[in-house]
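Postdoc handover notes: sequence design on the structure in folder B. Input tokens:
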């Protein structure tokens, strides 16, 4: 297994363009597979997860060509997918299996979909319940875990009151809604990322939003006529990947970092507000809209970070950034506290346990709780380098690589290749910007 050594550095400086946003890339790829014609997606995510989605939709009959970061996908209309003779493999990607479950529920054939050892431990009941209500027949291990067998069929529209704030659940229901008779709506208990809603609109699906309720019109098309139109799109850079560099630059007074073309969708950018609230030196320029998604450039200078509490409705808005925030805790004035974040225990790893264990290895003072953790700030003493076990989780590996930059001595990130799940070039870019 490959590992990466992180040495202490003095600053992060220079410019970087992030690979395409993972969440948006998944959605564009899936909808392109349902459109009639060829979509061209530029700056498509380099993330392994999004290539898992491409593998699945290819097995379902979409034609795909990949040329660097430009991906062309030819769909054969809303009813154009074909049964795959092999089990679909979502590998490590929760977004792939949960969103595709929605689409597979509306097909006139049976599909099997599974993933790697981590994905096979992640709960699917949250999508099984509403999709069953719409008429799909879904079986899973213990009625909850992959592999899933999905017997699609005629779906009926429902109004689903979501019991939890999850963009993946919302998206699975809305995508299934494309195949249902009538209008399917979803009400979320707290705001989550709205890329599915924006992408549906770009591909020409009738979708509307009122408060926390999103409604999509089923597209009952006859004779295989395409109802969704292909798009030509530039995927914005991934803010959740940018956050590792924003955090790293913030740690050093001499840093001066410029991040170009970053996705700043308001349902994702709460992390920038949180950083600013902590005293970070971030400014945003060149704001523009691309396919309904807000994009801009960021400049980041070093700062003394205050730390703070993340709880309640802020949790789903910062969900993928929580590992980085927690790992920054020991470098902040007041430390970082996470509450209401038990969802982190069922991500690519049990992120609360992984954070607590690895922070302790570096000498941090941490209290692990069922729904979060408390990480003591600078008063807990300086961090020292350590061997980090990311438990196969990309965001844990990247968060501790950043923490290692300001620790005393060397940090070794074991199984560092797992970063490729979202950001294959992460370590080389980090070394370049740190002048190493
Ligand atoms: C995602 C939604 C979030 C997030 C995941 C990507 C998406 O998951 O953690 O990395 O693209 O919809 P949940 O919907 O389970 O919160």
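Designed sequence:
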């Amino acid at each position: 297994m490959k590992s990466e050594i992180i040495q202490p550095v003095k600053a992060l400086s220079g410019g970087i363009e992030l690979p395409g946003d993972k969440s948006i890339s998944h959605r564009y790829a899936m909808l392109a597979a349902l459109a009639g014609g060829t979509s061209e997606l530029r700056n498509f995510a380099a993330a392994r997860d999004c290539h898992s989605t491409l593998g699945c939709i290819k097995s379902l009959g979409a034609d795909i060509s990949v040329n660097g970061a430009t991906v062309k996908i030819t769909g054969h209309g809303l009813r154009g997918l074909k049964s795959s003779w092999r089990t679909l493999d979502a590998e490590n990607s929760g977004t792939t299996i949960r969103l595709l479950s929605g689409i597979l529920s509306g097909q006139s054939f049976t599909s099997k979909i599974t993933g790697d050892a981590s994905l096979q431990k992640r709960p699917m009941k949250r999508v099984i319940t509403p999709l069953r209500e719409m008429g799909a027949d879904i079986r899973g291990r213990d009625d909850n875990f992959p592999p899933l067998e999905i017997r699609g069929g005629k779906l009926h529209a429902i109004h689903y009151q979501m019991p939890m704030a999850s963009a993946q659940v919302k998206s699975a229901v809305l995508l299934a809604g494309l195949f249902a008779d009538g209008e399917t709506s979803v009400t979320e208990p707290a705001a989550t990322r709205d890329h599915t809603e924006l992408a549906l609109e770009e591909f020409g699906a009738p979708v509307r939003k009122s408060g926390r309720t999103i409604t999509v019109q089923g597209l009952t098309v006859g004779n295989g006529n395409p109802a969704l139109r292909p798009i030509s799109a530039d995927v914005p850079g991934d803010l959740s990947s940018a956050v590792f560099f924003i955090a790293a630059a913030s740690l050093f007074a001499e840093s001066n970092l410029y991040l170009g073309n970053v996705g700043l969708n308001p349902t994702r950018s709460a992390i920038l507000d949180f950083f600013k609230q902590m005293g970070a030196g971030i400014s945003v320029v060149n704001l523009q809209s691309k396919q309904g998604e807000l994009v801009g450039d960021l400049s980041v200078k070093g700062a003394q970070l205050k730390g703070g509490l993340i709880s309640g409705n802020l949790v789903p808005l910062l969900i993928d950034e929580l590992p980085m925030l927690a790992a920054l805790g020991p470098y902040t004035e007041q430390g970082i506290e996470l509450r209401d974040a038990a969802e982190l225990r069922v991500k690519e790893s049990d992120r609360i346990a992984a954070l607590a264990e690895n922070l302790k290895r570096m000498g941090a003072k941490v209290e692990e709780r069922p729904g979060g953790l408390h990480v003591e700030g600078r008063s807990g003493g300086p961090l020292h380098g350590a061997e980090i076990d990311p438990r196969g989780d990309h965001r844990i590996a990247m968060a501790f690589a950043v923490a290692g930059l300001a620790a005393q001595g060397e940090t070794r990130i074991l199984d560092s290749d797992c970063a490729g799940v979202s950001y294959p070039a992460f370590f080389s870019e980090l070394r370049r910007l740190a002048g190493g």
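Context for whoever picks this up: The mean pLDDT is 97. Don't rerun without checking with the PI first.
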